[in-house]
Write a structure and sequence with these properties.
The chain is of the alpha+beta class. The chain is built from four helices and eight strands, in the order H-H-H-E-E-E-E-E-H-E-E-E.
Length: about 170
């Protein structure tokens, strides 16, 4: 159907029974049809994001200790740390100091415009914590590249591994 319709629209000798318009296609009408067909594509290509842009992160914004309020591995429900159990991160001078319940970790960290990268390798103590396996899950979610957003006193790290939410 489409080839016949375009043939009818753009062929001067188009038969009127296949044409969308009565009478022959004039050059002005042909230009109008082309413009009408291309307008939605042009508008879509030129439009930018409609939501507010996220301001770039800075090391000053990230500085300080962030305490985990919830973790959510990809495809699973949200897990809130048990009362009295602390999971935290502090990024200073390109290093991450991490507390995963009774374990401590240290590794490289980098803050980008909208990302935080921890590790991916970290040196950790390996004690068996009462909160196990939450400590291992936390470290797996934290290690690597994450998209970071800060809203008020909440830091959210998102990756294909899952989501971590921290509070200052």
């Amino acid at each position: 159907m489409f080839p016949a319709m375009f043939h009818a629209l753009f062929n001067r000798q188009a038969r009127h029974d296949h044409c969308l318009f009565p009478g022959p296609m004039t050059p002005q009408l042909r230009h109008l049809v082309v413009a009408a067909l291309l307008a939605p594509v042009t508008v879509a290509a030129c439009s930018g994001p409609t939501g507010p842009s996220t301001p770039a992160l800075s090391t000053e914004q990230i500085a300080g200790t962030w305490t985990l309020t919830a973790q959510q591995p990809a495809g699973q429900g949200e897990i809130v740390p048990p009362a009295g159990v602390v999971f935290s991160i502090e990024i200073i001078d390109g290093r991450a100091a991490v507390r995963a319940d009774c374990n401590r970790c240290n590794g490289a960290a980098a803050v980008g415009d909208s990302t935080v990268t921890v590790g991916p390798l970290m040196a950790c103590t390996r004690a068996f914590c009462p909160s196990a396996p939450l400590d291992d899950t936390f470290l797996k979610l934290l290690s690597g590249d994450s998209t970071a957003t800060i809203a008020g006193d909440t830091l959210t790290l998102r990756s294909d591994r899952g989501v971590l939410r921290f509070r200052r």
